[in-house]
Amino acid sequence: MNQEDDAPENAYTADPGSADDAEATRRDAGEAESSRASRGWWDRNADEYQSEHGAFLGDDRFVWGPEGLDEADAALLGPAASLKDKDVLEIGAGAAQCSRWLAAQGARPVALDLSHRQLQHALRIGDDIPLVEADAGNLPFRDGSFDLACSAYGAVPFVADPVNVMREVHRVLRPGGRWVFSVTHPVRWAFPDEPGPEGLTVSASYFDRTPYVEQDERGRAVYVEHHRTVGDRVRDVVAGGFRLLDLVEPEWPEWNGQEWGGWSPLRGNLIPGTAIFVCERA
Ligand SMILES: C[S@@+](CC[C@H](N)C(=O)[O-])C[C@H]1O[C@@H](n2cnc3c(N)ncnc32)[C@H](O)[C@@H]1O
């Protein structure tokens, strides 16, 4: 993957690399272009993503991000015992590892993802979870279909209109339902996405919302990541009809020695890498 000095590299996602000749830049990218780019990128890179990170993610573990915060310990969706018989929508589910953990708690998860290839990996692991291939911005479910919704780095960082996703999640949730999602911590946007010391010096404005785009030789986006500040994300959640209950910034645990793209013990001990928004449907 190419990277320009002034462009924060796409983070949780990028290390598998995209089209060899892709050029990294910062420019606007609308909803349709972002969605098309995400589907293509994840279809092309799903194999590498799963082979590189599958062991850490585990087949039936619910990990919120590279720090390794586990839902079994964090209980951000509620105590594990309360998940029994709950209808749960996982958005941007990838190979549905989180859904498989939810099913083990007695919940009824549905795993949704835009990428056909990611969902094929879900099938490779097991055919126990209902899978839906769809865009988070247009959820193919009736109003009030779910008790809970969750997303570990799925969809939200990649969409041009996150408020639309919030509204869609609000629509398909029942009143009082929780919506918990993790994204790259917004402060990371200001730093180069490097795991070493070079990733500790501010190189771009935290306030510059211009999307990070990799484009092919004809200028078509092949990867897009959208930046929102912390305040933007709070406003998005509220505009979508949610109350924000908590904003969790997992600290880097001593046991975790892995590097994942720009995430590393070095940086993780100094600056946050993941932000988890715990919301409740008003
Ligand atoms: C970083 S992966 C996370 C996958 C999984 N949650 C995990 O922790 O491994 C991001 C996922 O979001 C999916 N995604 C990206 N944009 C999406 C969209 N607009 N709608 C639904 N899924 C999307 C991608 O296909 C990919 O599987």
From TrEMBL:
Pfam families: Methyltransf_11 (PF08241)
Domain Methyltransferase type residues, every copy: 89-181
Region (Disordered): 1-42
InterPro entries according to UniProt: Methyltransf_11, SAM-dependent_MTases_sf
Gene Ontology molecular-function annotations: methyltransferase activity
Keywords, in A-Z order: Methyltransferase, Transferase
GO biological process: one example: methylation
Amino acid composition bias (Basic and acidic residues), ranges on this chain: 23-42
PANTHER family named among the record's database cross-references: 2-METHOXY-6-POLYPRENYL-1,4-BENZOQUINOL METHYLASE, MITOCHONDRIAL, METHYLTRANSFERASE
Protein name per UniProt: Class I SAM-dependent methyltransferase
Annotated source species: Streptomyces yangpuensis
